[in-house]
Design brief:
- The structure holds two protein chains of two kinds.
- Helices cover about 85% and strands about 0% of the residues of chain A.
- Chain A has helices at about 1-15, 20-55.
- By secondary structure, chain A is mainly α.
- Chain A is built from two helices and no strands.
- Chain B has one domain.
- Chain B is globular.
- Classes of the chains: A mainly alpha, B mainly alpha.
- At the A-B interface, α1 and α2 of A face α1, α2, α3 and α7 of B.
């Protein structure tokens, strides 16, 4: 999904050579922040699941 | 508490709206005349700020409820809202300078809105550091609730900073042509639904973690 959105951002940003790089940078930054937060949530989920399994 | 159905529904809505929003940003809406393509950062920058404001307001309300009722549910909800709000204010503080570099030629200007937004980010960062290093006890939860209440008072300051002190970079009012307004409405709905989906996911994790810790303690 992230790769798809990144490709979309690259295609769209390609319309303007002047500030398109910054637009691409901006949307890539959003994707990176959200992906990092998603990883953090996934990691917490894994820890909780592992703890529950151990508890049982 | 099981929010599974709501979570799936919210994630489906968020995915559909974000796909539509991104399509509109990159292929439908025209570029702004003076700033060019980079102005399109606006369509996720401003809704991210709105989402952060809403989530910090919810964290404020849930923190008040926690101090009043002393039920862990409210603390867990406040924590989830503050955390996702922090993610969105981070998006604002990262995309703003990228837009600013292209539009004003500078990454950062110490003007009222940027400065107060940075202070807001620092206050919620302090909130997380407190929660991270002080454990899961009731006293930490009470201190964190007070911090979330105090930090929220910066939200109206960030919002009204331009009106009160003026700004060299942020216009006091933005007028949008119909295509831009429509795109802004779709991306606002997209970002708000994403914020709701993330908050619900984070809140469910918080409940699972509390349950798991309680079982482990028994």
């Amino acid at each position: 999904m992230s790769a798809m959105l990144f490709a979309l951002a690259q295609m769209g940003a390609g319309h303007s050579p002047s500030t398109g790089g910054y637009l691409r940078g901006g949307y890539s930054a959003i994707l990176v922040i959200l992906a990092l937060y998603g990883l953090y949530l996934w990691n917490r989920h894994t820890i909780i699941t592992r703890r529950n399994k151990r508890g049982r | 508490m099981d929010f599974r159905k709501w979570r799936i529904l919210l994630w489906a809505i968020a995915a559909a709206l974000n796909a539509a929003g991104l399509y509109m940003v990159f292929f439908f809406v025209p570029a702004e005349m003076t700033m060019g393509e980079v102005q399109k950062i606006f369509y996720y920058h401003v809704p991210s700020a709105i989402s952060a404001y809403v989530l910090f307001a919810l964290a404020f309300a849930f923190s008040l409820l926690f101090l009043w009722k002393e039920e862990p549910l409210w603390d867990s909800l406040a924590h989830a809202c503050a955390e996702v709000g922090w993610v969105f204010i981070t998006v604002v503080l990262v995309t703003g300078p990228i837009w600013g570099r292209a539009a004003w030629g500078k990454w950062w200007v110490w003007e009222p809105r940027l400065t107060t937004a940075l202070v807001l980010w620092l206050m919620y960062t302090a909130y997380f550091l407190l929660r991270l290093f002080s454990g899961h006890d009731a006293r930490t939860a009470r201190v964190a609730a007070v911090m979330a209440i105090v930090a929220f008072f910066d939200v109206p300051i960030v919002h009204f900073a331009i009106k009160w002190w003026g700004s060299i970079v942020h216009p006091p009012k933005v007028s949008l042509e119909p295509a831009m307004r429509l795109t802004f409405l779709v991306t606002s709905a997209a970002v708000l639904s994403l914020a709701a989906a993330l908050t619900l996911t984070r809140a469910s994790l918080g409940f699972d973690e509390a349950r798991s810790l309680a079982e482990e303690a028994q």
